[in-house]
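in:
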């Protein structure tokens, strides 16, 4: 359990530090070009990952805080019951860290700061942050674990 909490807090802290740097060095809706395919931007996202529900009218803030709070509460209990499944546990660790990072923003600011903006020519991926990446990595690990266990059965 210590490992889950420690690593999840590390992810949350990394997420929050990167967002503070964005607040300090990039103007709102501004950007810094890093590579031809990557910009660091400063966007305020009132929705979920990859700007899902960002124009929903305000109710989504409370909905997403509730969902994140449920996940943050549920994951440690699920972790304890599945100690012999390292891939599943790693996935939970990443999801918890990301959920905590975005939850801090939603409670503190009312929105999430997104700053990683990938594009190829005129095709743009929605802006995201470290917490979103962590949640996606965790979800991928959970899917892989479920697939692997299904093959083993």
């Amino acid at each position: 359990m210590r490992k889950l909490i420690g690593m999840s807090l590390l992810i949350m802290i990394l997420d929050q530090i990167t967002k503070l740097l964005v607040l300090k060095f990039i103007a709102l809706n501004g950007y810094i070009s890093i590579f031809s395919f990557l910009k660091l931007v400063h966007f305020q996202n009132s929705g979920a990952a990859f700007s899902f529900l960002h124009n929903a009218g305000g109710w989504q803030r409370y909905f997403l805080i509730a969902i994140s709070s449920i996940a943050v509460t549920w994951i440690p209990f699920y972790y304890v019951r599945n100690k012999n499944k390292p891939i599943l546990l790693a996935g939970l660790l990443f999801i918890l860290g990301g959920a905590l990072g975005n939850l801090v923003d939603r409670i503190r600011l009312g929105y999430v700061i997104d700053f990683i903006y990938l594009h190829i020519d005129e095709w743009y991926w929605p802006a995201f942050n470290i917490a979103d990446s962590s949640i996606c990595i965790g979800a991928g690990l959970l899917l892989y674990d479920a697939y692997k266990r299904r093959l083993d059965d």
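note: Residues 2-152 form one domain.
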